[in-house]
Amino acid sequence: MNTIRYPAKKDWPDILARPAMELSSLDKVVQEVFKRVREEGDQAIAEYTEKFDGVKASNFQVPESEIEKAADTLNEKLRKAINTAAFNIEKFHKAQIPKDIQVETMPGVLCMQKAVPIEKVGLYVPGGTAPLFSTVLMLAIPARVAGCSEIILCSPPLKDGTLNPAILYSAKISGVDKIFAIGGIQAIGAMAYGTQTVPAVYKIFGPGNQYVTAAKQIAARSEVAIDMPAGPSEVAVLADETSDPVLIASDLLSQSEHGPDSQVILITVSESIISKVQEALQYQLEKLPRKHFALQSLGHSKIILVSDYDTMIEMVNAYAPEHLIISTNNADELAVRVRNAGSVFIGENTPESAGDYASGTNHTLPTNGHARAYSGVNLDAYYKKITFQKISAEGLKNIGPAIETMALAEDLTAHQRAIAFRINKLKNQ
Amino acid sequence: MNTIRYPAKKDWPDILARPAMELSSLDKVVQEVFKRVREEGDQAIAEYTEKFDGVKASNFQVPESEIEKAADTLNEKLRKAINTAAFNIEKFHKAQIPKDIQVETMPGVLCMQKAVPIEKVGLYVPGGTAPLFSTVLMLAIPARVAGCSEIILCSPPLKDGTLNPAILYSAKISGVDKIFAIGGIQAIGAMAYGTQTVPAVYKIFGPGNQYVTAAKQIAARSEVAIDMPAGPSEVAVLADETSDPVLIASDLLSQSEHGPDSQVILITVSESIISKVQEALQYQLEKLPRKHFALQSLGHSKIILVSDYDTMIEMVNAYAPEHLIISTNNADELAVRVRNAGSVFIGENTPESAGDYASGTNHTLPTNGHARAYSGVNLDAYYKKITFQKISAEGLKNIGPAIETMALAEDLTAHQRAIAFRINKLKNQ
């Protein structure tokens, strides 16, 4: 990791910059796949699945029998661990159920807001080297808690056409209604437009590679909503002389093992901890199965030494990390000053792994600085909030004149008359 | 208005379809303007302002003195009306302030969620035939209530380079920090990337024409968040034999006067009201200043007769209108069955004009069927929700094994070790 000492504030933007993600070069391929999925439906899905996943399949929906079997084939220990995580995720997301709001803004003018679950949601769970069953829990449990009436899931098939049993088991206990062994752009297209077997949904959730991300962005321009723009995973760790270099190193490696493009930053007020963390990294790296990924990620990662805690927090808020681990004795004090981050891990006993899997918080979080404006996935993401208003005769008399004046000032005469006709009618009653 | 009687359900999608909005043809011009704004800043803004607005300006920020003056030049009646609306909007949005959430998911595993205001927001208020000062209130008041620390506003200059005093006055009382007389793609570019005088923001709100909408969509692919995709305004009105045809017609015209592309639908269970509404429309149209817009809009608008209330509600939920006016005696019963709509107006005394201006609900709402997945602008839109977790030694012992099992099952060894190192350390303490 490169060490930068006391950088001038004018250099922060360069130091904290992420690699540029220019996905518009993928638009053409996304649009082509979308067009074929819209026009040919399942037939197009079958061809792309054979081309990209090497799987010949005519039926993409995982049969109920296979899902049932997954629970039996999964080892007991993993099943219990998944159940524990599911319990915690459900508990934390249930606490987020929004309350209806009702306010009489003026006498007789009643305004209400009601959260109504999005009826149809589609979840995307990437394939790749490992089965990301934890993402199934993170995306599906809140959907069930919110009360979405149709929850579907797409994930690319393994070479034999199936999905990993841990994914199937997680989907089953989370309340997913239909599971499809479809991946990539074609999965996003299928959920956005619908095919003979895949129902169209109103919102698509989930991470993915750059093709999936570009596909979600393009789908979001017209057909459906998406959770957030996705990018490479990130962590910022805050340390001082009270921090344990071994634990700090383990957290940095947790992030860097995700992939070569993972973003890892250590911000510290302690000079002396830097060499100790570097040593611990060397030692822990040696035994890491995904060492090749970690090494590439650490190659562009940074240790930044700052002069005081104020600067540390200012830098964190400027960077807006997806994950923020505060591994200092004063972690509580620092945590309350965080303005921009996806999820915050307070104190030495709270590694990112906890939130990645099982503490109860969601691990689908804004990357690439989006934490400045986006929330991670939370229960809100599965609702839309509808407003209602009900005005009594008295209320209309109270509020009507202001509306008429404003409508005329905006040259919208019919808006004014909709009030005037009603007030006249009330006068004549 | 075209009347359709008892349509078969298979024909609903065609009947309820909106005109296709294909904005990607505008991408090239947006990208060109964005590139110049990024590279040349204010110089590019000046050139585009001269080209598109016919205004030569070197300073786009409206001076404090001009804003102060606006309050004096505005007539007393309009000022009071704006104050009334602002009061109600503030009251309803204050009721939406989210509470912090704190849950111990397992003994020693504390999960929290905190809403933190987005620091920098940019509001876009379109120009055009009338000054949309009501949109200023709708976008800026929630930003101030949420506690956004920098609120800026862009709106295209009038021919003399100024902004309408009603816009300036509304911005002032809503707590806008800086006002810029900049419109169109260049305004979105300025707020997304920043220039010498316009600060870059983290989220852009507000309606606009197709150029502004395309610009927001492209900006949202990388730099900033946006409120929602915008489209032509819409209303669905529900009527039965208890409804007043004159009031129904006034509501239909309120929507259709917005512009030729406004979407207006009347769904009724009463055959007899149809001709009465048509008559009232004819009568009211004659005296309408914006008759030319209303006629074009009504030309593609529909009256749909259905057999019962169940079908009526099913059709509304399939259409997902931006505005829904329920002008029947059983409006309350029908309102609780609405699943997809932006804002709902309950009963004869609650016209859309009320919510457009002053009841307190927001008028920035999802169009084009997006109400299936998007909320209208509400206080949530000005926050991001950050999660926090804090695990005690006891908590880590409780939750650690499940995390280790799951991490290994996802082939993420460093994630497992981040737990193992900590549990070992606790054992040795």
Any overview of this molecule?
Two copies of one chain form a homodimer. The first copy, chain A, has helices spanning 12-16, 27-40, 42-53, 64-73, 76-94, 133-146, 165-174, 184-193, 210-220, 245-256, 272-286, 291-299, 309-319, 331-335, 352-357, 393-409, 413-427, and strands at residues 2-5, 101-106, 109-117, 120-124, 150-154, 178-180, 203-205, 225-226, 234-239, 263-268, 302-305, 323-326, 343-346, 383-391. The first copy, chain A, has 429 residues and is an alpha/beta fold. The first copy, chain A, has three domains: 2-21 and 231-360, 3-Layer(aba) Sandwich (Rossmann fold); 24-226, 3-Layer(aba) Sandwich (Rossmann fold); 392-428, Single alpha-helices involved in coiled-coils or other helix-helix interfaces (Up-down Bundle), CATH 1.20.5. In chain A, the strands form three sheets. In chain A, strands 1-11-10-9-12-13 form a six-stranded parallel beta sheet, with helices on both faces. In chain A, β5, α7 and β6 form a beta-alpha-beta unit. The mean pLDDT of chain A is 95. β13 of chain A pairs parallel with β14 (383-391) of chain B.
List keywords for this structure.
45% helix; globular; homodimer; Single alpha-helices involved in coiled-coils or other helix-helix interfaces; five-stranded parallel beta sheet; alpha/beta; Rossmann fold; 429 residues
